[in-house]
Design a protein that fits this description.
- The protein is mostly helical.
- The protein has one domain (10-65).
- It has helices at residues 10-23, 27-54, 57-65.
- Helix 1 crosses helix 2 (27-54).
- The N and C termini lie far apart (46 Å).
- The model has no long low-confidence stretch (mean pLDDT 94).
């Protein structure tokens, strides 16, 4: 496991300390989790963009022509 020295403004540190306390985790665990979530979001975005570049819009339009034209179900309107 790697170590990282991080300098934060005192106000952010206070918020992190309080959130960690409320969540019942250490500050290290909270920051590690937050960074992991951000990395995951960025990697997911990259993956979706790469997939979109490979998309064949003609095939998408062809598939959509097979979808019947009807109003959405009531539960889908919420």
């Amino acid at each position: 496991m790697g170590a990282l020295s991080l300098r934060l403004p005192e106000s952010i540190h206070r918020h992190i300390r309080e959130i960690a306390r409320q969540e019942g985790v250490s500050i290290n665990q909270l920051i590690s989790s937050a960074v992991s979530e951000k990395v995951s979001a960025l990697l997911t975005e990259e993956y979706i963009q790469a997939r979109a570049k490979r998309a064949d819009i003609g095939k998408v339009e062809q598939i959509l022509t097979n979808v019947s034209d009807r109003d959405p179900a009531t539960e889908d309107l919420r």
